[in-house]
Input
Amino acid sequence: MEEKWLNWAKRLQSIAQAGLTYSKDKYDLERFQQIRDLSVEILNEYTEAGSEKIRDLFCNETGYQTPKVDVRSAIFKDNKILLVKESIDGLWSLPGGWAEMNLSIKENAVKEAKEEAGVNIVPLRLIAVQDRSRHNKPPFPYGCYKVFVLCELIDGEFQSNIETEESGFFSLESLPPLSRGRNTEKQIEMCFDSLKSPHQEVLFD
Output
């Protein structure tokens, strides 16, 4: 479960963001800005990110705060799952990333698989929709829904790109070091289970 301090900081940030957007009174606006600053102080105290980075990540939006959506594709061949090595940390994950505006879940899955792994796929069905704070670490300043999609591999091969360094197919017993903020061993196992059980209901928190 999410640490209490992070939950408090995120709730304060959400209240402040809405207040700064919808309030008209100058004194209320000042108070909501103080609340936002306090949320940054909390994160700065308990993380090593630094207040400037936290402000860039945590306080760059306006309006009512809603969760971000991270779409991950589970692509199999010969009972092995496709993973890509992330350039940013050298760890491995399912192809995927933040959902883009004007693209459906299916379209996002297709786009990320092509960009990160060089493969063409057909999304088949949802595996799960999870609240990141309940399944992944390290702590993340935004609310986030992680969407896992079972996909059929058509063709293609890895192409050099700015996001990933290589790709490969792995059995559940021989997974490489995972980027656990993106996907954990348990989430990868969940994808294998979904492949074996085609009529399994969508899992969600």
